[in-house]
């Protein structure tokens, strides 16, 4: 239990699927670092600081979770904080193909850091931040998709006064 795992992602925004992986990983590793990656090729809805705040609030009840950001290579971050593992959630076979490429490159760059794949809970297998943003933009109910703090932040970003049920 003394080992540290890193759960990386853009988390724009954090979803219940992300939180499921974070919670489950927190039971396997002594410490979890949620690393908000600042991906310059994406046009995020939330700033890095907003994403960190939302994740921090959503994971407040999980004592061994810390939330940080990083803009370089993930393996450099993991090595720098003393992590032994990267934890990635998988929804479908298509996720595995992409993650396998990233994992293989990470092993070339830093062979001491292992990657652990966790299958997402079936109820979140369709869920992505992109889908959440799309439905939230049109005022649809996202209460089953994201934690309440994120639901409120989405309403504010999209200036939604009333949720369509």
TrEMBL record:
It is found in: Cytoplasm. Substrate binds at residues 10, 42, 74, 88. Residues 7-134 form the Cytidyltransferase-like domain. Pathway: Cofactor biosynthesis; coenzyme A biosynthesis; CoA from (R)-pantothenate: step 4/5. ATP binds at residues 10-11, 18, 89-91, 99, 124-130. It catalyses: (R)-4'-phosphopantetheine + ATP + H(+) = 3'-dephospho-CoA + diphosphate. Keywords: ATP-binding, Coenzyme A biosynthesis, Cytoplasm, Magnesium, Nucleotide-binding, Nucleotidyltransferase, Transferase. InterPro entries: Cyt_trans-like, PPAT, Rossmann-like_a/b/a_fold. Its cofactor is Mg(2+). Coiled coil: none annotated. One of its GO terms (biological process) is coenzyme A biosynthetic process. The keyword ATP-binding applies. GO terms for molecular function: ATP binding; pantetheine-phosphate adenylyltransferase activity. NCBIfam families: coaD_prev_kdtB, cyt_tran_rel. Belongs to the bacterial CoaD family. HAMAP family: PPAT_bact. This is Phosphopantetheine adenylyltransferase. It comes from Bhargavaea cecembensis DSE10. The lineage of its organism: Bacteria, Bacillati, Bacillota, Bacilli, Bacillales.
């Amino acid at each position: 239990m003394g080992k540290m795992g890193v759960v990386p992602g853009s988390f724009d925004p954090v979803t219940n699927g992300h939180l499921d992986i974070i919670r489950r990983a927190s039971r396997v590793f002594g410490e979890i670092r949620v690393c908000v990656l600042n991906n310059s090729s994406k046009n995020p809805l939330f700033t890095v600081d907003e994403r960190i705040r939302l994740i921090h609030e959503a994971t407040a009840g999980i004592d061994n979770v810390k939330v940080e950001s990083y803009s370089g290579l993930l393996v450099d971050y993991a090595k720098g904080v003393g992590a032994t593992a990267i934890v990635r959630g998988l929804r479908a076979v298509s996720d595995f193909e992409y993650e396998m490429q990233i994992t293989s490159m990470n092993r070339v760059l830093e062979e001491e850091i292992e990657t652990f794949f966790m299958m997402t809970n079936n109820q979140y297998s369709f869920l992505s931040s992109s889908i959440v943003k799309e439905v939230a933009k049109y005022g649809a109910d996202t209460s089953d998709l994201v934690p309440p703090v994120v639901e409120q932040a989405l309403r504010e970003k999209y200036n939604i006064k009333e949720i369509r049920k």
